Amino acid sequence: MAKKNAKLTTYLWQGKNKQGQEVSGEISAQNIALLKAQLRKQGIVSAKVKKKGITLGTKGGKIKPADIALFTRQLATMTKAGVPLLSAFDITSEGVDKPALKELLIKVKNDVAGGSNLADALRKHPLYFDDLYCNLVESGEQSGSLETLLDRIATYKEKTETLKAKIKKALNYPIGVVVVAIIVTGILLIKVVPQFEEVFAGFGAELPAFTQMVVNLSRFIQGNWLYILGGIVGVVFGLKHVLKKSQKARDKRDRMMLKVPVIGQILDKSAVARFARTLATTFSAGVPLVDALDSVSGAAGNVVYRSATEKIKEEVSNGQQLQFAMRNAKTFPPMAIQMVAIGEESGALDEMLDKVANFYEDEVDNMVDGMTSLMEPIIMSVLGVLVGGLIIAMYLPIFKMGSVV
Question: Which is nearest to 293 in space by CA: 266, 253, 320?
Fold first, then answer.
């Protein structure tokens, strides 16, 4: 007798494909687990799934990459100390405060207890454990050196998250200067200038050009502040929408960001560090160089370096040495290429790549610290010019009257 067809539910999903592009769609499935399995087969990592009319969120807060990095370090430490894998999961999950992370660890542990390999259990949660992570775990299980590979993954995740934090810090400072300047200027123009304008009205004399310009600007903002605010919000959300939907727009943004003074240098060095760190981690785990370059391409974080890595992979797969392929890409600094050349000649490529990653991570750290120190006086200077300029504009008529008297 034929089985009755199971009831299908329509879900809306959003996620990222293998190229890192944001994608979305609508699909029918029996349940969310089967839906995510279908998406994984298509190479899509589902970031958000919702049933029609119901938003499905993560219970107990969002699991962040930093949480996965910490869990990996704890798991690596315990397995290295000889703690059985299942016991390590029990100990780790008991010490977790975030309910969502605890639930995730329990699910992985139950799959392993049910006979699955750790790599297969992790692959059921692609939102938190990417292909690079799972492939390295699989290599460790097959070679019998899981604790060593977990330690390398933990180091990789920690270094990556530290680098991301430095980049965010570098980008947030200029944004902070602009926001503070806009807020201070807005308060002065809306609250302070109108009070001076009432005083000027009793003078009966023509105001200096600079003062009149500030007064006119104040009137304009008071009468149109709602439209101005709406325009700013619209532009911000419009840009976010365009960047989310258009790969071409994201690529253009990546190229433009590399040309921004100071910020571009930081992003450039961080991309080299990420390239070297990912390649060192995968290559040292026994992954063939061509396959390792696949992982590097996905973790590049910038279209310029992603394109360069894809070109390098093509040349290496045709028999070219890595050092010459990197030189032909015309993207990497001479120091990184020279270190790779030494690594290839000495048979210690992973070690040299690790040194390259450490060097450029330190460079990023120093540049961010230097920029932070530089931005503090710049903030004070910008605010000083704005506030000082407005004060001068307001007192110019008084100075003019004093000189006449």
Answer: 320
